[in-house]
Amino acid sequence: MIKNNKISSNFIECPICESNSFAHLFKKNNEPFVKCNNCSLVLINPRLNYEKIKETYNDDYTRDYAKKAISKLRRSLQRVNKVKNQFITSGRWLDIGCSAGFVVKSAKESGFDAFGIDIEPWGINYGKRSLLLNNLVNGTIEAQNYPDNYFNVISLYDVIEHVPDLNLLVKELKRILGENGVIHIITPDIGHWGVSKTLSDWKEIKPSEHLYYFTKLTLKKLFNKHGLDIVKTDFSFKTSLKAYIQHSDG
Description:
The protein has 250 residues and is α/β, with parallel strands linked by helices. The chain is built from seven helices and 13 strands. α3 (69-86) packs across α4. The longest helix is centred in the first third of the chain and has 18 residues, at 69-86.
């Protein structure tokens, strides 16, 4: 959970196309939501200093999430099975933003050598203690120095919209993804037919939390920059973008 504080803001160029031209959409909690005039990415810009934002994280959300362990494990297993049924049945699985570790647990029980990482320590401790998961780490993906081409599956569920440096993340995903590996991403879909006509009323508009709002096209453009491509998307009644991504050069 992120609480708003009155702190300094930073203007950024568009992380997809590097444009500095944006159309103002609206303000919420005094934070400006804009649309890139070149590639149409929607984002908060300028945005609060992310180092300051990270200081306001607490474990309330993860604690509430862990209380729903049975339903979260069931959903996590469904996600793992989707990947198994369509792409890869074994190997190393990394869940980025693993929270309490339910996806890691499901992947492990499904035969994967499963790893998880999150910046919030309470969930990591819960996963180790309550789910008996050993391959969980507290920190950022870029700091782990995993070997090249190491993971067969990388999942990011409700994560990419929070990440301050999209290009740093995707560059690292490209490096650690195995030759025939797959990245499974779920993120709010601003292009979904179910999004509120008054965009500021959409439940996924979350100042200081969701920094970016993707369509399939803008997500594709971001990954194409780094030699990755969306190879499949799943239909969703909810306003979610569910994408499978692989090396575009392999």
